[in-house]
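Sequence in, structure out. Go.
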Amino acid sequence: MRTMRGVLAAMTVAGVVVAYAGPSAAYRATPNNRLESRASAPNVGREVFDPSLFAAPTLVTNQWTPLVPGTKMVFDGQVVDETGTALPHQVVFIVTDLTKEIDGVPSVVVWDRDFQNGVLQEEELAFEAQDAAGNVWNMGEYPEEHQDGKFSGAPSAWLSGQANAQAGLLMRADPQPGTESYLQGYAPEVEFLDEAQVSKLGEHVCPPVGCYDGALVTDEWSPLDPLSHYMDAAIAFAHFLAGRYDEAVAWAEVALPKHGGYQGTHRVLAASHALAGRLDAARVAMAGMRALNPKMRIADLSTLIPWRRPDDARRYAEGLRLAGLPD
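Output:
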């Protein structure tokens, strides 16, 4: 769930907190992509969970993550599948008036649902609490998976204090760029490990839905995620849509070594290089994409991506055309 939420936020921010996913520098998984230890969480961040430090935990007033019962937010965006096709995706986020005690701390219950092409794909109960210093903690998650709109299981549920799981920070009280990364949650029995780091503060951001001032930008990642290349490619595409071609190239180059067979990464890399004026690099990237799909044409783009803004489609086609993709 958290990975998907990061992708959507990067592409279609509806407020002032922007989450970008990125590679971890603080922790590495073992070669077989499993946690090295099931006894204790990785040593990430300066905060230590202590139930005695929570005075009014269900009163969540953090500036960046206020959780007022009755709040409802709807995030509309796109996700990119393994063929590079962008699909409509929606997350509906509701702060309930329910509470649940977890690891000795009463916690607010948040309910969110993921819809892909209008079909419920996953829904989750998340449990959050604020300590006396103003930090918001992620106390656990109960995500239910759905197949064809029907419940299929909940294999990734975890609660702090059970099966060596440990609460992690959802948001610091005073997030500042340049500070160390922090653990967002750890549950070894279900192979859950999320981290984050504050990237920028006071940013002017312009995702497809509009422009915003005073944004907080955080990098979020899971060192264990075998599909992180999709997220990196989606962030590259989000930067492309915003006209930040150098940033798009940087994220595409993070994604490419992870999965060189993903066509979407090659396309956004080629288009971004081209519109930044680096035609030689664009043609090299295009050669990689055409090696995977030699039949691809500019005309195919309209079926791959449900464009919301005609100018985005025009720029993407222009970049790919400059890179050498035939009409």
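Check: DSSP finds seven helices and twelve strands in the chain. Residues 228-241 form the longest helix (14 residues).
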